[in-house]
Write a structure and sequence with these properties.
Four copies of one chain form a homotetramer.
Chain A: E1 9-14, H1 18-29, E2 34-40, H2 44-54, E3 57-59, H3 61-66, E4 72-75, H4 82-91, E5 95-98, H5 106-119, E6 123-125, H6 133-143, E7 150-158, H7 172-188, E8 194-202, E9 217-224, E10 229-235, E11 243-250, E12 253-257, E13 266-269, E14 272-275, H8 281-284, H9 286-302, H10 310-329, E15 333-334, H11 335-339
Parallel strand pairs in A: 1-2, 1-4, 2-3, 4-5, 5-6, 7-10
Antiparallel strand pairs in A: 7-11, 8-9, 8-15, 9-10, 11-12, 13-14
Helix pairs in contact in A: 4-5, 5-10, 7-10
C-alpha cells in the first residue's frame, strides 16, 4: 500500500482555548494525515464544547494520556504548563507537538527535552512561520545561496488587538510574540547562534498599564555568531491587520516575505488603490498551521526528521530571556550569560 | 448534533485523467465534508491506479452509478461525454458535479439540465474561479456597489504548456479554456447577458498546425445587455507561468484580481526584484477547486443553493459558440442567433 | 565646446489652451535644451496671459512663423488645425513638433508630411508614452528579445473626467485618446502593421448624450501583420485616477507597464493598504512630456534621428479611422481599405 | 510680474567631486529658479573641468565668495570642510545650502549656525529625502493624523558599492550615510527628540579592513521623547541596487515609502516576475535633489521658510555621535550626554 494510504496519526489535543480550538479544527478537517480522537482541558466545559463541535471525544488530561489509541499529543494549553505536559506526554509514550514557547525557563526546557529523549518520542514545537509558503520559499533561496551570507535581518509581528491589557504578564511580548521572530531569525540566518541582545520596550498602546508592568511595543536587536545583525519588532496593536513579515539582506541579495494583505485583489477607487488585510493569526497563518501538523504527522508515521525540535525552541527562548534581561538592565546582554544563568 | 458534524457526502468520481486525479485527491484529502468512495473511468487501468493511490474502490461507470451508497457523482471525464454522464447520473438519483464545459452544444446542455430537474437532483458545474479568494473578494465588492456599474471588463487565461498541438481540436480554446473567462465575465458583470461577440484567433504558438485547424491564441470581445464591453483572452503558451487574471472597471471604481505569482516572497538580486510564479492550474487554483467541492457538498447535505448551475454553464457555452462562429465568419455574431441556432 | 553647452533650441509655441499651457511651462522650465521665446494662439487673450505667466513674448501665429530667431515650432492648437499648421511651419523653415493627432484625415496627413520633407525640416509628433520611463524600459526589453515574438497586446487610457459631454465630437475617443494606444501598440509590436480592426463603442458614462453621437467608452481589437492580436481600451470617466497602462505578451515572456499610482508610498489603515493615484495626464505623464521635448531639441540641434515621425503618426491615424468605420458599420474593417479610401 | 517670472537665484557651488558634479548639473539644467554662475574647488582642475562641461565660470573659493553677483552658495566640498565653509559663506553675505553633514562635531555645528544667524542669511542642509515624492506623501499623511501617534519607525540606506574600503574613515557609516536616516526619523516622528541610542556595527562586507576600523554594516536603535522606538540600518554593499526605504507604524496605521525599483515596469519570464532597480543615489534620488534646490531658491528669492535648517542638521548629528559612542562603549548612550559632551 502506498505511503499516502497509511492510516492517519491518532491525536489527542490538550488545551481548548482560542488557539486550541483553531488547531483542533484544523486537525479534524484540514490535515489529511491526522485523525483527532479527543480533546482535553484543565477545565471540563471548554473541552466538552469543543469535542461536541468537532464530533470527537472529550477527556480529562490524565485520561487522554492513558488512552492507548492516542499516538500523539498536541499541547495548546497555557504556556506555563507546556514543559510539564511535554514531559508527561513523553513519559506516556506519546509523540509530542507543543505550541510555543516550549517552556518558560531554560531549566524547564532542558527537562522537557530530556523526557522526550528518554522516552524516544519525537518533539516538535509550534514555530509555524517556517511552514508559511513565502517564508519557506525565502528560506529555500537563502539555503541555495541566492543571497550570499546573511548580514542584516528583520522580523516583525504586529497583532491587531490588545483586548485586556491587565491580563498580559510583563514578559508576554518576548516569550509569546517575539519568540516567533527569534525562531524565524535563527532559522533564516542559516543556523548561526545569537551572541548579544539589546531591547527597548514600552507600553505605548496602553500607557496606563505601564506601571503594572505592561510592555506592548518592543524593538530587539541581535548580534549573531556570523556577524549578522538582526531586528525583531512587535506591537500589540496594529490597526491595519495581523502583520507578520521578514527581510533578509545578504552579501549577494535579499529576500522579503510576509504581508497582511496576502491575496492579490485590489480595489481602485477615488481613495486610491487598496488591498484588504486580514485581522487574526488564524486567518493569516491558517495554512502554515495545517502544514506544520502535516509535517508532524509525517514524522510520527514515517519517521521523517523533526522539522522544529527542542533545541530550536530552546535557542529562541534564550533570546527571549536575554531580551527581558536587557530591558530590565538597560544594556545589551550576552546570550552565553543567559545560558550560564548569570545575566 | 451541529451541522459541522454531519456525515460527509459520499462521492463517486468518473474520469481518472489529469484533472480527475487532482479532483479525486482533493476530494479524498482536502474537502472535509466529502468522502470519496470510488472512482470509475471508461478504461479500467487508470481507475484502478487512482483508486489504489487513494485507498478507495474502483468501479465501472455503470457499477458506480448503481451503487446505492454513492450520493453524488463528480464528472471529470472527457468533455464530449459530460452531457450524457450528467443525465445518466441524475437518472440514477445522484447529485451531480460536472467539470466545464457541461456540454458541447446547447441541445445537449438543455437535455442534461432537464434530466437533473426531472430527477430533482442538484447540478453544479466546475467554474472554480468563482471560489478563488481574490475573485470572490472582487465579486463581493462589485455586488456591494463598490465600483458602480461595470463598463469595461477583462478576463484572461494563459497556460504554460501546449504539449501536443496535433491533439487539440479546433474549438478547444473556446470551449475548454475561454469558457472559464466567459463564466467569470458573466458572473462579475452582475448577471447581465451577452448580446454580441467578436473573436480573432490564430495559431501563433504552433503555426505549423494552423492548417490542421489549431487555434492557440484568441482575443474575444463581448457586448452585454447593460452596455458593458468585455475582453476575454487566451494563449496556450505562457512561458512565465499559469496566468489567470481579471479586471472590472465600473462607473465608480475598479477591481483587479489574479496573479501567476500568488505569494508575497520577493528575491532581490543584481537581476532586480523577482517574484516566483506557479506553472499549472492545479497549483494556482488548488484551493478554489477544494472550495467548489465544499460548496457542492454543502448543497447536497444541507440544501444550500446551487452556486454555479446549469443555466450559468449554458450562458458561458453560448458565448463560446458565438466566438467560434465569429472566427469562422470573420464578423461579430449575435448571441440570440446562436440561441436560435441560426448563426 | 561640449554638446551639452550648445545653445538651447529657440522655440515658438502655437496654442495656449490646457495642454499648450502645460507644454509651454515645461519648455520654459523643465527642458534644459529648449528656450521658449514666444507663444501664439488663434485668440489674443490666452496667448497674452500665458506669455505673461512665463515671461516670454506673445505673438500672432503669422508673426511667430515670420520670426527669424524662432528655430522650431511646437503646435498645441486645436486638432483640426494641426495639419495646416505643420505645413505652414515647415514652409517657414521651422522644425516642427505637433501634438497628436497630426491630422484628421490621411490626405491631410500626407500633405503635412510632404511639406516637411520638401522643406527639409524634421517633424515629431507628440506620442509621449514612448518617453515614459516604464514604457521605454518595456520597449527596450522587447527590442532585446526579452519576450520573444509579441502575440497578445493591450493598451488602455482612462481619463478621470468628462466635464462637458456635449462638447465632445463623436470620433474624439478614437482620434484624441485611443490614438495614443494605437501608437503604443504599433511601437511595442516591433513595427508590425495593423491588418484588421474591430471596435465596440458606447456612451456609458453619459448615456443621455448617446443620441448626440457621444462615445465615451470604447474597446478596439486589432490584428497585425505578425499575427499578434491587440486590445485598445478607453473610458472618459475613471473615478480612481488617470490610468495609462500596457501589457505585451510574447512567445518567451511578458512586460507590463504603467500605473495610476506611480509612486511607492503606501498607507496601511483599517481600510487596508492604499496607494494614492494621480488624476491628470499632465501629472501622470509630466516627465514623458519633458523627455519628448528634450529628444525633439536634440534632433533640431544635433541632427539626432526623429523619434516619432509623420509615418508613425499616420499609421496610428489609420487605425483610428478603421475603428470609427468599424463602429459605424458594425463589423471588422481592413486597414488597407482605409488606406485605399474604400472602407 | 508674477513670482514665477522672478529672476532665478544666482548660485556659486563649492566642491567639484562626485556629488558636486551631480548637483552643479542639476542646478544648471533641472532647477528652473536656479542660475549656476560658477563652480569652485580646493583644487583647480576639477573645478575647471566641471565649469567647462556646464558652460559656467570656474573660480577659486575666495574669489567665488567675493563675487557680488553670487547670491547663494551651495557647498558640496569634503565633509570636514563644511562647517567652516558655511561660516565663511555666511560672513560673505551669501545664502547657504550645505550638503550633509553640516559639521563633524556639535561645536562646529553651533559655530556655523551662529555665523548664519549673525549674518542674517538662510541655511539649508541637504537632507533631500524630505523632498522625495513618496517620503513627502508619507509625511503629509502622518502630519494629517493618518497613522495616529508614531510608535515604531524604520529607515534604511543600502549603497551598492564599496569601491575602496581603505579610504573609508571609521565613522563614515554614521556621519555620512545613516545621518540621512536619522534626519528622516526625526522628521517622520513629528518632531520628537532622540533620548537614547544603541548601535551594533561591523565590517561584514570587507572584513579584512575591520582592524583598520572599517564599519560597513550598522544597526542603530533609538528611543524618542514620545516613546517611539526606531531602527536605522545601513550597508555599504547592496548587490541589488540603491535602497532607501522607511516605514512608520503608528497607533492608527502605517506608512511605507521608498523602493530601489521605483518604476512600474515588470518583466515576466521563466525566472518569474521581475522589476528592475537603479544603482546610484543620483539615479534614485535625482528628483528629490532638484526639489530641495528649488525649495532653497524659493527661500532665497521669496523668503519662504527654511525647510531643513541648522537645528535639524544638528539633531541628526547628535544621533550619529551617540551611535558612534554606543559602538565604542558597547552600551546604549543617552543623547543628552552627547549634548553635554560627557558620553
Amino acid at each position: 500500500m502506498a505511503p499516502n494510504a497509511d492510516p492517519p496519526v491518532r491525536i489527542g489535543l490538550i488545551g481548548a482555548g482560542r488557539i486550541g480550538t483553531h488547531h483542533a479544527t484544523a486537525l479534524a478537517r484540514h490535515v489529511p494525515n491526522a485523525d483527532l480522537l479527543a480533546v482535553a482541558d484543565a477545565f471540563e466545559e471548554p473541552a466538552r464544547r469543543l469535542a461536541r463541535e468537532l464530533g470527537v471525544r472529550d477527556a480529562g488530561i490524565e485520561e487522554l494520556l492513558d488512552e492507548e489509541s492516542v499516538e500523539a499529543v498536541v499541547i495548546t494549553a497555557s504556556s506555563t504548563a507546556h514543559a510539564e505536559l511535554i514531559a508527561r506526554s513523553a513519559t506516556a509514550g506519546k509523540a509530542v507537538f507543543c505550541e510555543k514557547p516550549m517552556a518558560m525557563s531554560l531549566t524547564e526546557a532542558d527537562a522537557a527535552i530530556a523526557a522526550c529523549q528518554e522516552a524516544g518520542v519525537p518533539l516538535q514545537v509550534g514555530f509555524n512561520r517556517r511552514f508559511a509558503t513565502d517564508f519557506a520559499a525565502a528560506h529555500a533561496i537563502i539555503s541555495g545561496g541566492g543571497i550570499g551570507s546573511p548580514q542584516l535581518l528583520r522580523s516583525l509581528t504586529r497583532d491587531p488587538g490588545l483586548a485586556n491589557p491587565s491580563a498580559v504578564p510583563p514578559s508576554t511580548i518576548f516569550t509569546q510574540t517575539l519568540i516567533h521572530d527569534f525562531d524565524a531569525l535563527l532559522w533564516l540566518n542559516s543556523g548561526a547562534a545569537a551572541v548579544e541582545v539589546h531591547a527597548f520596550a514600552d507600553a505605548l498602546v496602553a500607557p496606563e498599564f505601564k506601571d503594572a508592568g505592561l510592555l506592548d511595543t518592543a524593538l530587539v536587536t541581535i548580534r549573531f555568531t556570523n556577524g549578522a545583525l538582526a531586528t525583531a519588532e512587535a506591537s500589540f496593536s496594529a490597526s491595519y491587520g495581523y502583520d507578520v513579515r521578514a527581510e533578509v539582506f545578504g552579501s549577494a541579495g535579499m529576500v522579503t516575505m510576509g504581508s497582511p494583505a496576502p491575496h492579490t485583489m485590489q480595489h481602485w477607487s477615488a481613495d486610491g488603490v487598496t488591498r484588504r488585510t486580514v485581522r487574526s493569526d488564524t486567518d493569516l497563518m491558517h495554512e502554515s498551521y495545517a502544514a506544520e501538523f502535516a509535517a508532524f504527522c509525517d514524522t510520527v508515521r514515517h519517521g521523517a526528521p523533526v522539522t522544529v525540535g527542542g533545541a530550536d525552541a530552546k535557542a529562541a527562548l534564550e533570546i527571549a530571556l536575554a531580551a527581558i534581561a536587557s530591558v530590565e538592565q538597560g544594556r545589551p546582554v550576552r546570550v552565553d550569560a543567559i545560558r550560564a544563568g548569570v545575566a
